[in-house]
Design goal:
The chain is mostly helical. It has one domain: Orthogonal Bundle (434 Repressor (Amino-terminal Domain)), CATH 1.10.260. It has 5 helices and no strands. It is globular, with a radius of gyration of 12 Å. The protein starts with 13 loop residues before the first helix and ends in a 9-residue tail after the last helix.
Length: 85
């Protein structure tokens, strides 16, 4: 059985993850978050507007900076798939 795409999950909300990261890292906005994660600001904007999903590389970067588990980060954005591709 094929896993559903992340963006099609009814529970998927990347804004919860981004807002949680802003709070956890104690930064003011998306621009500061992009600097903290060392990603271009348009990446954060595309994720926020659901034009791009949070990919594995960004999840790993968030894990490296916060020491939060990948499972916890996935749960923050509503990704509750038991297996992920």
């Amino acid at each position: 059985m094929k896993q559903p795409e992340l963006a099609s999950l009814s529970t998927y909300d990347p804004n919860q993850l981004l807002d949680g990261m802003i709070e956890y890292l104690n930064v003011k906005n998306d621009a500061a978050l992009s600097r903290a994660l060392a990603v271009a600001p348009p990446i954060i904007s595309k994720i926020r507007h659901r034009k791009m999903v949070v990919g594995p590389a960004l999840l790993i970067r968030m894990h490296e900076i916060t020491n939060l588990s990948i499972r916890d980060l996935r749960a923050m954005m509503g990704d509750r798939r038991p297996v992920y591709c």
